[in-house]
Description:
nucleus, alpha+beta, globular, binds adenosine-5'-triphosphate, seven-stranded mixed β-sheet, 7 helices, Elongation Factor Tu (Ef-tu), domain 3, 3 domains, Rossmann fold, Clp1_N_sf, Jelly Rolls, P-loop_NTPase
Amino acid sequence: MSTSTDTPISEPKRWDLEPESEYRFELDPGTSLAIKLVEGQAEVFGFELAEAKVYLFGSECKAAVYTWKGCAIQVTGVPSTEYVSNETPMRIYANLHIALEQMRVRALRQVRGSPVPSQEANARSDPPRVLVVGPEHSGKTTICKILTNYAVRAGQGWTPFLVNVDPGEGGWAAPGTVSVAPVKGPIPTASSANPLGTAATNAPMSLASNTLLPLAYWYGHPQTKRNPLLMDRMTRNLGENMNDRFELDPEGRASGLIVDTPSSYASGPSANDHRHKLINACIDAFKINVIVVVGHEKLNVEMQRSYGANLMVVKIPKSGGVVELDSSYRDRVTNYQLHAYFYGQVIKPPAGITNGSLGGESLTDLVLSPSSTVINFNDIIIYRIGSDAMAPSDALPVGARRTVSEMQPVVVDPASPGSRLLNAVLALLSPQASDESERYDEEVLDLTLVGFLIITNIDITTKKMTVLAPNRGSFTGRTAVVGSFEWQEQ
Ligand SMILES: Nc1ncnc2c1ncn2[C@@H]1O[C@H](COP(=O)(O)OP(=O)(O)OP(=O)(O)O)[C@@H](O)[C@H]1O
């Protein structure tokens, strides 16, 4: 593995891009890249680059600098792959954006009671609520980002909601979550740790200008098939929150929402029950009216058959630039995400670069310092949800029935040898209802996520454990849930 410190200063390389072409690159672990727009217009997945500003990329980022009108860029650093492509589906993505934009305009017109042009008298006035589905490596997340960025750049003051129901990806916080954030400014792409932009954590002293404030629930596992019932519940919880918000803000509702889904929603036999139930949960929860199918004929036919009668199903091609990501890459990205959650976004610029920015933010603004705190076992109540806490069926005595359902929160005792809490990622939840009479069995499933902790040491004799947290604070009386993610400093 080479690092930017042992690579010699590489001469900046100039790339002249023709209109509607893109410069694609992939980075190896430990390397970084600096890109400066020298002239013309350019964007990274819809995020416009400012001329003469140096943008840094790291943590194995794979991306493309696209230009509509032609540009020259200067690239410093040595990517593992770099090339220019003139064949991109960006025109089709832009046309899709224009169609969504027209829906937003009609929706806002209706909210404001503005006159409707006669040629649009029969057009529906629903804001766009888009579900993006597609197989693995089809570029779903990238398309969601491009469509969101084009909406916020339209100059109409839109604040679309970006929803992430792919728990394998992490979105804004860490993997294992399902979340939504209103997006006010374009989302940069700089690192695989923040594919959807940077969220405000508990810790930063100064908030980056395009920081997002997501609402998240903790599912706790990378794969949706592990506990589909729980995924269903979390998806519906997110939807309910959004609908409450939309009721209070009808103008904000006009901006619409875009939902990024996991590839498990698109693969496997069409009779796969859990897949269809989860797609249905999204359609109900977010009142989806447009399904975008990315580059998959069979899935498109299936979606047309299942949903085409009631909502619009649009097929768009996959970009040839999308990179196939293997499971070891995904594991490294999980590590980058958790590291970035606790320590901030630390990217070492390539040799020779001193003035780089990450998505337009200064590097020092994005560095955090977590703290380790020793707490008593009974300071926080830790739960594990359902099946994860259950013994395998064949381990039960003959004739015995399960007593724990998939959705039941089970208290985990840190002192028990099988607690599996060491190095576990804990999701810290918002407080339970203070009024005992309002509490219910599965309340823990409906509490939103406020942050993460890692248990770095457990001392059974003193009944104390050490937790790594983004900031120093008291955890007494707090509720946490453990899933299947672990993390260790490396
Ligand atoms: N045009 C492009 N040029 C270079 N890299 C790209 C391009 N489009 C997407 N990528 C990269 O390819 C990778 C996969 O893309 P993306 O995450 O959007 O796919 P996905 O379908 O959401 O993946 P998953 O299978 O995880 O759901 C990402 O690292 C992304 O930045």
